[in-house]
Amino acid sequence: MKTENMYVIWAHPRSHSLTAQVVDQMQSEAQQHGINVTSLDLYRSGFDPVLDVDDEPDWNNPQKVYSAEVHRLFSELDDKDTVVVVFPVWWYSFPAMLKGYLDRVWNYGLGYGPGSTLAGKKLRWLALVGGSEAGYIRYGWEKNMTDFISGAMSYLGVADSKIDFLYNTIGIEEGIDNRDAHYQHLFAKARAIVSALAE
After folding, report:
1. Looking at the whole model, is its pTM more than 0.85?
2. Contact 89, 127 (CB under 8 A)
3. Secondary structure letter of residue 118 according to DSSP
4. What is the pLDDT of residue 174?
C-alpha cells in the first residue's frame, strides 16, 4: 500500500550532519511523490532521553498515564501510516538519544502491549555506518542490528519493517576516489527507500 503520511524520526547532534542531509533528501523525495511528511529532530526538539519513574512501564497497568511529553509525542504517530527512523551507528548501536526515545515514547500500553497502535504501521530504519560494508558484515554487526530491530518489531507487532544501511559514511575507505560522487550515491539510496514506499 502506498504511503500517504510519513513520520521521520532522526538523531544527530549536528544539524548539518550527513544524517541531517540524508533526512532532507528523503523528505524532498517524499514531497515529490505527494507524501505528507512530519519529522522529529530529537536533538533540536529538546527531547529528554532519560527514562524517569514517571515514564517507567507499569506491567500491572497498561492504561498508565505517562508524562505529557510522552503522550504528546506518541500522539504524533496517530495518523501516520509509515515511520522512518534515521540514525548514525555509534558503538555498533543507536545513539543514546534515539534509544531514549524508544524507551520513553514507544512505551507499554502505547507502542506495545494492550492498546498498542504501532502494529499496523510500516517501519523503515536507515542506519549510517562509518566503515565498510565488508567489515561490518564480517564481524557480525549487520546481523546483530538486523536481528535486534527485527526482534523489537515483532515485540511491537509490526509486520512490515525493513532496515537499510548506508556504508562508508565517513568517506575514507579505500576505493573512494570521488567523495562527492560517493555521497551522491548514498543520497540516491536513501531517496530510493522513499520511492519504494510511494509505489
Report:
1. yes
2. yes
3. -
4. 62
Cβ(56)–Cβ(25) below 8 Å: no
Domain boundaries, the chain: 5-197
Report which of 153, 32, 45 is spatially closest to residue 101, judged by C-alpha positions: 45
Q: Does domain 5-197 have CATH number 3.40.50.360?
A: yes
C-alpha cell at 93: 548501536
User: Which among 24, 135, 134 is positioned nearest to 86, based on CA atoms?
Assistant: 24
Mean pLDDT per 10-residue segment, the chain (199 residues): 95 97 98 97 97 95 95 97 97 96 96 89 97 89 94 93 95 74 95 96
DSSP H or E segment with residue 6: strand 5-10
C-alpha span between 5 and 191 (Å, rounded)? 16
- Ramachandran category for residue 175: left, alpha or beta (phi over 0 → left; psi -120 to 50 → alpha): left
